[in-house]
Amino acid sequence: MVNVKVDVAEIKDICKKHGEDMDPLWVNIRREFNLSSFSRSGGIEKRTGVAVSSLFETAIAIPLFLVGTVRCFFSSSFEKIVESSPCAYYRFCQDSRFNWRRAMKTVSRFIRKREIETCLEAKYPRAFIIDDSGLEKSGRRIEGVSKIYDHCTGHNVTGYKLVGLAWFNGVYTKMIDFSMAAEKKLELKRGKQFSKERNPKEPGAKRKKELRKDKITLACELMGRAAKNGYAPDYALVDSWYTCAQVINKVRSINEGKTHFLGMVKADKRLYMYEGRQYTLSKLRHTVMSEKKRCRRFRSSYVEVVCELKNVGTVKLFFSRFSSNKKWVCLLSTDLEMSYIKAIETYAIRWNIEIMFKECKQLLGLGKCQANDFDAQIAHTACVFITHSILVYFKYREDYQTLGELYRTIESQYTGLLTVEKILLMLEEILTAIASKMGGFDTVSLHDVLNSPEYAAFRQGIRFSLFLSQNGNIDKTVNNEEVANGIGEKAA
Fold this sequence. Notes:
This protein has helices at residues 8-17, 25-33, 35-39, 52-64, 70-74, 86-93, 100-117, 203-209, 215-228, 245-252, 281-287, 340-347, 351-363, 374-397, 403-437, 446-450, 453-470, 480-491, and strands at residues 127-136, 146-150, 155-168, 173-181, 235-238, 260-265, 272-274, 277-279, 293-295, 300-309, 313-322, 329-333. The protein is an alpha+beta fold. Among the domains are: 120-370, Transposase Inhibitor Protein From Tn5, Chain A, domain 1; 411-491, no CATH class. A hairpin with a 4-residue loop joins strand 9 (293-295) and strand 10 (300-309). The radius of gyration is 29 Å and the shape is elongated. It starts with 7 loop residues before the first helix and ends with a helix. Mean pLDDT is 80; it is low at 1-23, 413-420 and 468-492.
């Protein structure tokens, strides 16, 4: 079959003429976001071969098109919407000069401007959310992988720890920055991990250095960069791992001290000063248990305590026990005016990052990249988060209930889009076959072909084909001579 390149906008117009408003999400994304302009934020230019803008669009499209792997994408009909090849795409992802952190910042800044234009009314406080998630890898020779602890299974696995900083704007959550961290060193019996030389000034080399940093330091650096980029949250929400003096003091330095810390506290050996005496967290709870109160809204018992924490200062603790759980939990806040109900409502926002990790892993394939090059791992993760940011923007703008519903809409749209492409290919081939049967395009004009009895019979047949396209049933290769002979017999 002849490979016919069809413009997406033309397909959209053709479908509307037939009464089928095929408005693919990719058309909206390319029109609203101008992805080619975002590619310039990466800081590299392609002087020969495929343009960087096309490669960047391909990188964003692959997680979106539900194809699973890069090879599946380039072997499917989706490749018609991009102008690149697998080899060029792999070289692009492995280029340590491309600044994926800056690209994520550019996309986030663009979305923030659109949020202001659409007058999003925040019902909840704005917040930074910090959390980490394990990215398991099957290859032990992947550059920089280590032994990490998987909290879900309770076992050590091979992979990376992803430390992410999410932004909650009062309506929805998106990832604005991330870093990769290594934990326990991975020992190989034979061979070595993949490695390559990088210029120390290149973004890829700087990301590689982050592997040797601890998660607390990475979290502070992520918040510091976000604050410089203009983010001014009301709260920073963390789990018990990141509740420490280093993170708390970093949060209090953001936004001229207007940003407060709110996080879970685990019962360790840290000492809290209360009424002139030092207590551990568990002993402090037993000391103030006589002040216990009841909250009907959350069906819980709670105690509020204002105390001093070393290297931090005055903090407020919320001891709480819900009716469905016998264990007491504790929240720590630097906002001394915060009430118990507000503390619970605000900390519940932190669960959004857990949902986001789940959506990115199940829907966008986060962590599925098995490339040996660390730059490719960074490129894959950044593309997933950029795609997720675009999707959640469209999700709330188009009033989709869940990302799963949005994905089902995408899948149905592109099933129809590919079907229309097949119809257009069949149309061109049949016109060529009819002209060949009449003596070729050199002896007959297009006017003769369109007024031939063969084409009149084909017009009746195409109506049946359009009916099948609505049900996604056209999926067969058309033989030119057989179709032409069949139309000729029908016309006769």
